[in-house]
Amino acid sequence: MTSSRGLEIGVVIAVAVAVVGLVSGVESSGREVSSYVDHAPPPPSDRVAGARSYRDMRDQAFGPNAGLPVDWWKRLRGGGVDLFAAVVQTERDRAASLAARADRRAYDGAPPVIPHAVDQLAVPACLACHEDGVVVASRRAPLMSHGRKDSCLQCHVVAADPRRDAPTVAPPETSFVGLGAPGRGERAWQGAPPTIPHPTWMRERCEACHGPGGWHGVRSTHPWRSSCTQCHAPSAVLDQRAPVALGAAP
Amino acid sequence: MDRRDFIKATAMATAAAAAARLALHDDAGAQPRVADGVTWDKAPCRFCGTGCHVQVGVKGGKVVAIAGDQKADVNKGLLCVKGYHVGLALYGKDRLTRPLLRRNGKLEPITWEQALDVVADRVMANPAGFAIYGSGQWTIPEGYAAQKLIKAGIGNNQIDPNARLCMASAVTGFLSTYGVDEPAGCYDDLDHCDVVLMWGNNPAEMHPVLFSRIIDRRSRGEKVVLVDLTTRRTRTSGFCDRTILFEPQGDLAIANGIAHLLLERGTWDRGFVEAFCNFRKPTSPPTLDGQAMTFDEYRREMAAYTPARVQELAGVAPADLAYLADLFGNRALRITSLWCMGMNQHTRGTAINDLVHGIHLLSGHFGKPGDAPTSLTGQPSACGTVREVGTLAHALPGGRVVAKEDHRQEAEAIWNLPPGRISAKPGYHTVEMWRRFSTPKEQGGDIDTIWVQVTNPARSLPNINELFLPSRKLPGKFLIVSDVYPTATAMAADLVLPSAMWVEKNGMFGNSERRTQQWFRMVPPPGEARDDCWQTIAVARRLHDRGHPGLKDKDGRFLFHVVDARGAAVPVWDWRRYYDVNVDEQLFEEYRKFTRKKHKDLAPYQEYVKTRGMRWPVVEQPDGSWRETKFRFARFDDPYATKADIQFYHSVTKDDRALVWFHPWEAAPETPDKDYPLWLCTGRVLEHWHTGTMTMRIPQLQRAMPQAYCEMNRADARALGVHDGEVVVIESRRGKLELPVWLGGRGEPPRGSVFVPFFDETLAINLATLDAHDPLSKQPDYKKCAVRVRRRGAA
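^ inputs. structure came back:
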């Protein structure tokens, strides 16, 4: 009885994952990123700016964060994450999270595009938010899945014309269908910790996606445990570490 | 689907070929990986000259994913945004899938048999007027086949590549300094240097993987000083310790100013110079050998380049010049100079290349890891195919030239040709080839057919109003284009041949650091698209069958004699048989015979199958293994440098010494004036590669940078009354176009200059650029000409 129920659940999961994979794979190419925001500062005036009084500074927004809500700092989710709160996820949450994730990538493993404007010339200050991750109201700046790299815009590009008020140009048509998100990891038995179903290269920081600030549908149920690979095994083949044939032992 | 299944599924491959292919992999490190139904295998990236290796994920006969290759020395698992999306370049909706012939002004589908006949008809009608125009995107075997067809077969030496527009001045710089082409150093220098000096170079956008290789050292706590010598603030500038803006053409004055201060302060390296250098000055007309001069004469010439004079010529403050001279004068530092188009696309390209080598030699910053003058290339095989195979109008493979009798004889021997087959007369260099193609026959336009492979001259040539567009209206001029997309050139052609690209075919590239790389075909090309190399061989066979005498060797065998494992000839000109054997391997093994003369030894093909590329000279060891060379001319690493710590064993002066040149600063051929008051500089952006024919078909890249623009200084914009985003007219003496202005964008040109990228086929800035070129390298200057900008509607 139990085993057939387990089988049913397994089939449901497999179908759901296949559908998600198909949808995310198909949708990932060419689609506009749905949640692009431009909170870039207004263009600098050619006139020399007058000196600000302290009262101005308190009352008026200025600088690169002028486009953010006036009380944005109050809405930062501070260190008060409850690591022990129950994580309730449905298949729907998982599908939604994977779809949103796929929306920003050409294929699973591609560097995500940037869903907001960035300074095109200066050294970007990406790490200020993305090194550890920030949540502001309903928007989150996910922490980087990889270790510190300084030339962020080498791999990550904006998801819209970087020029202010530029006319929209239709995206090119493509028949590329990117690799979808992987299914769930394998379990040796029901209740065993699943293996990691995707490469871990450039994805060393599991909490980027699976931690409290990650995608809800793929969040870990036990975020207080932070040595992930203690229980979840990566794949040598996926990680480009396939063993070299050295011949039979003598 | 694993590799074996895939090969079965592709009708062209026989079981024998599949077995051979699998048997190649005795090193598991090179074996394709199969995971979750995706087969992963290695290939170098299709785009720039950095030469990153990617892992290509294939499923169901299509590329579905890309990953950085962790076993690759060049990129160590990282890529740039173009590399991560390179797989999408195959899947634009408008891939060319059938040969097309222009009839009554319209391109109509024809068969391959008909198409090959059309090409053969053109050659047979006028062999002397037939030219091939290729590029640094040719694979090594493709370029070698085209080279052999022209130099050994048709015999008119009319072959030149777009790399002429991209690194020809680097070649003449290396030849005139060391007597042999290509950098002595390699990317390992970037890990060891204390200072990186970038000469008119923006690697943060153009060679991003090399750039992050440098700056990520800082994250690891290492100290590396970055110095940006530039005519415009770029994304690179922000990462630099010092940005030194100079006036266009001022680079020559700066280099001479550094030499001046080294000499004046006595901080030059006497020991190095006395042991390893001779001095040279230019002649009139200029030659690669120049004229000998003494050190004292050199010192006297350099005496004129005082900091005050350099400030006047280049706009560089004496303090900045002193800073540079302090760096070079400090023997404890390791200094790597990097440059690419800024120094090469220059009417004084050879001169500035010589001068930068010169200050490295004069100060002894040479031959130690991290101490190197290193040119970068913009195309994936500008080095491997163009410079090494020698697909240039004057060259033969392996550093030989058609003008030298012994070089011709060596090539004739390797190709088994009758003596005297190869013509001693060089063909036309790129600008001249296209000028003659765009000139009526009766006015000297003696090139009447050009076959273009793997490039887009309708957008990448300078001054296209003069060099390209007239040919499309002249009777008797016939343009053949092999390409993968309907590019501007393909759409202007008389005959279009659909090509396979990248991992749709076998291939080999050679990157900027002398690294030769290999990959296998992984997916079938769409429709009737076929390999460029096959196209060349099939045309050659047509000419052979029609009795063109050049297509047989001296024993009457077809020039492209390809055999199977038993030694029987395989008719590879028949597409169904092309993948019966590995044509790449056979062409490469033949080409290898050319590579010893200049000590650019290459290993057997199978060695490259096992690795992520190797840097030549690759020398066989007593145990049968093959060893690459990282640092050329340096005894500690280069097996051919045996006499001293540094040995320039191809020295022009035959005494193992390099040449330190003096070249004077000279004004640019066109400078801003009352009528055309602004400098125009052109270039690339991070997201796009070359003329955007591939990257503009990749949604993620097109979205991030969908259109060309005119970058200008806010003060200039204000003076013109132009606002951000406004469409303006930009015009030179040669042509004009309309472009939106972008203020505060990707770069920041100083007052008096504008910048326009050339990736956008719909907004062709090369209508305005200048075809004036370097007298030795024949490379045009895309970086400086005079333009004016006006508001639309204004006179």
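Chain B touches chain A through 78 residues (CB under 8 Å). The first strand of chain B starts at residue 33 and ends at 35.
thumbs up if we can close this ticket
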